[in-house]
Write a structure and sequence with these properties.
The chain is α/β, with parallel strands linked by helices. It has helices spanning 4-18, 32-38, 56-61, 67-73, 78-91, 138-158, and strands spanning 22-26, 47-52, 96-102, 116-123, 126-133.
Length: 165
């Protein structure tokens, strides 16, 4: 079961208080992060939008992940997650981008096991990536990924040296 609702509300309030905006690039989660954010009343003050880039080629064409990154590391990699987060912020003209990529199953993908997941936050161009090894059903892995990227975002927001407005 996801804890996204309360965390999303807290993060959006903190970003609103700092005058910052947010965007998403989602692969593994297919829009679940954006859904969790937009379920919060008033999210439009902070959340600019997002891109669901499930196919590898769309990571490059829609979000701007460099072809060199995809060629060298593939779609399931920390470098790709970082580039997705930075690209989300860029294409949606937001201060912060968050991203998800990985394998939810039921089968491994391109040599990556089910549950290998990367979430990223890019704050004003500086990216932080967290590698996860998740277990459970496809649905559970996707929900855990939403929780993880929002938790990483909350940690990033809490450590910002940007005062509340």
């Amino acid at each position: 079961m996801t804890t996204a609702g309360p965390v999303a509300a807290d993060v959006l309030a903190a970003l609103r208080g700092r005058g910052l905006t947010l965007a998403t690039a989602e692969s593994l989660t297919g829009g679940l992060v954006g859904s969790a954010l937009t379920a919060v009343a008033g999210s439009s003050d902070v959340y600019r939008g997002g891109v669901v880039c499930y196919a590898t080629d769309l990571k490059a064409s829609l979000v701007g992940v460099p072809a060199e990154v995809l060629d060298a590391y593939g779609p399931v990699a920390p470098q790709t997650a970082a580039a997705l987060a930075a690209g989300a912020a860029l294409v949606c003209t937001a201060d912060i981008g968050i991203a998800t990529t990985g394998v939810a199953g039921p089968s491994p993908q391109d040599g990556h096991p089910v549950g290998e997941v990367y979430v990223a936050v890019s704050v004003l161009g500086d990216a932080q990536v967290r590698a996860l090894t998740l277990t459970g059903t496809r649905v559970e892995i996707r929900e855990q990924t939403v929780d993880a990227v929002l938790a990483l975002l909350r940690e990033s927001v809490e450590t910002m040296a940007i005062p509340l407005s």
